[in-house]
Specification:
single chain, about 20% strand, 13 helices, four-stranded antiparallel β-sheet, five-stranded antiparallel β-sheet, 5 domains, alpha+beta
């Protein structure tokens, strides 16, 4: 019996250990055995949840809090964090968005005295984590933006160089093959010469290069400005500054499209007429076409005048018909061109007016001798624009009538009168010298006159004047005077200060 009691006593602890647990022991073991679930924002630990609350496990609560923090991180501005206390716990809110719900058990496990202080510390931790994450995000975004700036700059530089290379290749191709390939003709009639098309194409290539490179730079600048928050406002201003005028221009162009079509057809017709006139008069200049009223040597200048007149007439008279308004830009351009031509031709018109006065007033006659600015010549022709003289050297001198307004013209008649000065010996009788020189003047011309000008220690100077039959009479008068002095034994003296009258 004693042995049996001893055996039962030894088995009692085992039975007690195997007895079912009570409710308190079950709740305590469940609370303490739950694993801690961290709430992180990025790589930073914000708080740790270890207890279940309102039917949600600690891990589920941690996932919900982590998701709420991720949503807050994506927002541009940090909302205000506040704590709301309730009967069953406390909630941390970001604006109106709940971040995490805390219980008294969470505060106890975290070693806090009460739930309110624990919730306040948790809100501060969340605020610090969000601020740190936003700062890190801004730094990362700035570094990434600068990397994009450099990357896009390299791309833009490559594209700009590529545009330059392509344009240079096209330019080289035009230089080598433009004269042969570029040609616009209708039935063997060359409308536009290859040289004109080649020059136009080269100019267009230069414009394409500038516009292309500017477009690439503008696109890079817009992208760079849009990467940073502080310069993002300038992007809209720059875009509006560049694109707004272009859009307005496109809108106006579309509105005026019918008028542009009509104007284009009219411009093509004028171009065809100008080209035809140029080709026709060029054939006259090459003597391939004969015109009785237009010599071949005048065909080239006549071509310039006629083509210019066609363009001016088209602007002045054709532009108002095409546009339907005499106050349009084309009509005004024609009027301005006419005014400019009138101002440019003012000296020509003034010279023609003065020439008409001289011609119809018969102030000068062909064959007369005149002296202008110290040069003498015989009039060979008087036109509306100029006075033509045959000089003593046998050359032709053309003097515009406008020049006569500022220069004196001396008329010498059909038989010019010359004066020469000679020197005789100072010891010779002046009366005899005067007589000798008078007879020499009558031999060289008519109306001879002699006068004593001055007496010097070594010689006396005399002036001999006579009317001669030609412009070469001055030389004959001087030779006759010198020979007469030599024959009379009065000595040849020396000729000095020869003048003409």
């Amino acid at each position: 019996m004693l042995c049996a009691l001893l055996c039962l006593g030894s088995l009692a602890p085992a039975f007690a250990a195997a007895a079912p647990p009570t409710a308190d022991s079950t709740s305590q073991s469940a609370t303490t055995s739950t694993a801690a679930s961290p709430v992180r924002l990025g790589d930073e630990l914000v708080l740790t949840l270890s207890a279940s609350h309102q039917g949600r496990s600690a891990s589920e609560r941690a996932k919900r809090a982590t998701h709420a923090l991720e949503q807050l991180r994506r927002q541009g501005e940090l909302p205000e964090l506040r704590v709301e206390l309730a009967a069953d716990g406390a909630r941390v809110l970001a604006g109106e968005t709940p971040v995490v719900e805390l219980s008294a058990e969470d505060a106890r496990l975290a070693g806090e005295a009460n739930l309110e202080s624990y919730a306040s510390k948790t809100a501060g931790s969340i605020r610090a984590a969000l601020a740190s994450e936003q700062k890190r995000s801004r730094i990362a975004e700035t570094v990434f933006s600068f990397s994009l700036v450099v990357f896009f700059a390299l791309i833009a530089f490559y594209l700009i160089k590529r545009v330059a290379i392509v344009v240079d290749r096209l330019r080289q191709w035009l230089e080598e093959h433009g004269d042969r390939v570029l040609n616009v003709s209708v039935k063997n009639i060359e409308l536009v010469s290859p040289a004109v098309l080649k020059s136009t194409a080269l100019i267009l290539l230069g414009l394409v290069r500038l516009v292309g490179q500017f477009g690439i730079f503008y696109a890079w600048l817009v992208v760079v400005l849009s990467l940073f928050e502080t310069t993002r406002g300038y992007t809209e201003r720059l875009t509006g500054f560049v694109l707004a005028p272009l859009s307005q221009l496109m809108g106006r162009s579309i509105t005026a499209l019918p008028l542009l079509v009509v104007a284009g057809v009219a411009a093509l017709a004028v171009f065809m007429l100008v080209r035809f006139v140029g080709l026709f008069l060029a054939s006259v200049a090459r003597k391939e076409t004969y015109l009785s009223w237009l010599p071949a040597d005048l065909a080239a200048p006549a071509s310039v005048l006629v083509r210019a007149a066609i363009v001016v007439a088209a602007l002045v008279f054709g532009a108002p018909i095409v546009t339907g308004s005499s106050d349009g830009s084309l009509g005004r351009s024609g009027a301005i061109l006419l005014v400019a031509l009138g101002l440019a031709a003012t000296p020509l018109f003034a010279s023609a007016l003065l020439g008409a006065v001289i011609l119809f007033g018969r102030r000068l006659s062909v064959g007369e001798y005149v002296q202008v600015r110290g040069r003498m010549g015989r009039i060979t022709d008087v036109t509306l624009l100029e006075l033509r003289l045959e000089t003593l050297e046998g050359t032709e001198q053309r003097i515009p009538h406008l020049l006569l307004l500022a220069s004196a013209l001396e008329r010498m008649g059909s038989t010019p009168r010359f004066s020469v000065e000679v020197c005789a010996a100072a010891s010779a009788s002046p009366v005899r010298v005067l007589d000798v020189l008078a007879r020499a003047g009558e031999l060289a011309g008519t109306g001879a006159a002699v006068e004593l000008l001055a007496v010097e220690p070594s010689a006396a100077r005399y002036r001999v004047s006579a009317t001669c039959a030609s412009a070469r009479g001055r030389s004959a008068l001087l030779v006759a005077a010198l020979e007469a002095l030599t024959d009379a034994g009065l000595g040849p003296g020396r000729a000095e200060n020869d003048t003409l009258k």
